[in-house]
Specification:
Largest sheet: 7 strands, mixed
Structural class: alpha/beta
Strand content: 15-25%
CATH topology: Collagenase (Catalytic Domain)
Oligomer: single chain
Number of domains: 1
Shape: globular
CATH class: Alpha Beta
CATH architecture: 3-Layer(aba) Sandwich
Distance between the termini: 51 Å
Order of helices and strands: EEHEEEEHHEHHH
Number of helices: 6
Radius of gyration: 17 Å
Number of strands: 7
Length: about 210
């Protein structure tokens, strides 16, 4: 049974940017990806794709900035902050930590998100101390993807709201990050799929 440690996935306010346009193709510009071990990075990408594809979104990864003409879908900029490797002596400093956030302006969620690797590592490390390095990298990579999926739900679903259960609730429990499998709930799926409907109907449809 998991201890009751909480992690916030919330929103921050910044200056105004253009509104985000929904599209089935989403290009993620991942900043500081070089800080992740290869296995962890691969698992993060696999997990995020497995979460987003059922909602109608195909994730494409970019390691460097691109000109607008080179972007085939909508662009989300994601910053990995802090240390993305497990600490050798992790102590959870608080019962509530902030794992990630997305920018908001004029009541709209913007395509600028971040994940705090240091806080994520501190939260998970005590529960993975006995695992081998490969297993630890897999679990950390999967957990980063789940925090990022939470932020993409806000960005792509154009919503500030949280759900009561699952990856899109306001606070993560350890089980949300450590369970072998997880999915978006029906309410979150509806938010994610709603912006896709106009494009799926076509230009001539009512």
């Amino acid at each position: 049974m998991y201890a009751h440690k909480w992690a916030l996935c919330c929103l921050i306010t910044v200056t105004s940017f253009p509104a985000f346009a929904a599209d089935a193709n989403v290009e993620v510009l991942l900043q500081n990806s070089g800080v992740l071990p290869e296995l962890m990075l691969r698992e993060m990408k696999l997990e995020l794709s497995s979460l987003m594809v059922p909602a109608g979104y195909e994730i494409h990864w970019r390691g460097t900035p691109a000109s607008p003409a080179a972007i085939s879908g909508d662009l989300v900029v994601v910053e990995l902050r802090g240390s993305c490797v497990p600490p050798s002596d992790a102590i959870l400093r608080s019962t509530v930590v902030q794992l990630g956030s997305s920018a908001v302006a004029d009541g709209k969620v913007l395509p600028f998100s971040w994940v705090d690797c240091t806080e994520l590592a501190r939260m998970l490390e005590p529960h993975l101390a006995i695992e081998d390095q490969e297993r630890r990298d897999l679990v950390y990579g999967r957990a980063i993807a789940r925090v990022l999926a939470h932020e993409l739900y806000h960005v792509l679903g154009h919503t500030l709201a949280h759900t009561e259960t699952g990856l899109t609730k306001a606070r993560f429990e350890l089980s949300d990050l450590l369970d072998e499998r997880t999915t978006f709930g029906s309410v979150a799926m509806a938010h994610l799929q709603l912006p896709l409907a106009p494009r799926q109907r076509g230009h001539n449809d009512p």
